[in-house]
Specification:
Number of strands: 8
Order of helices and strands: HEHHEEHHEHEHEEEHHH
Largest sheet: 3 strands, antiparallel
Distance between the termini: 71 Å
Oligomer: single chain
Strand order of the largest sheet: 1-3-2
CATH topology of the largest domain: Beta Polymerase, domain 2
Strand content: 15-25%
Shape: elongated
Number of helices: 10
CATH class of the largest domain: Alpha Beta
Helix content: 40-55%
Number of domains: 2
Structural class: alpha+beta
Radius of gyration: 21 Å
CATH architecture of the largest domain: 2-Layer Sandwich
Amino acid sequence: MNLEILNPHAVKILIASRRADSIMAISRRIGLSYGWTYKWVLELEKAGIFRRSGKKLFLNEESELYRKVLSFLGSAFGDNVAFRYNVLKLFGIKYCFTGTDAVFFWTNGGYNIARSRSYYPIFIKVVKADKDLFEFYEEKLGRGGHVFFQPVFQEIFDVSMHEGVPVDSLDDTIKFMRKYIYNFEPALEMIQEMYGKKLGVKYREAVRNA
């Protein structure tokens, strides 16, 4: 086996691949050109991880190399917060961050509550049509120990983008914070200042200086 096969492109292909797939679809999910995706799929095919039939691509989940790579990813990154956030982009599903995570992203990481590295739920919405796919990927990568997804499946929902991240709209996030005001009043203060929202929240600095 060519040692060059153990590279970031090939690892992303292994993460993003489905039982029945195509090179074009994988290329789109991982954001790599078709040519480079094709090259590494061929190498993975030689290693026994894929089987091609025309334009169709089939994943060999019994491949020893495939299982070892997934095992390594689980042990090395299973409880890595950044990995869990970033890997969602490779699933090719409709999702967005919601609740506490919507607050986290709209405050640009400035407000994070009731979470630590020993207990870190990631709150997301997933469209119901993609539920089986999401569960396939979650099973594939391991459901996580300390860091884990807390999904809510909905028929339909709107998605806003903030700094390239799919998230609940700012207005919906403000409604969520108002509903749980005792937990999120400091975050409302931050949102009021960052986005020029008139939320009627008094700044702590102003209270201290009064």
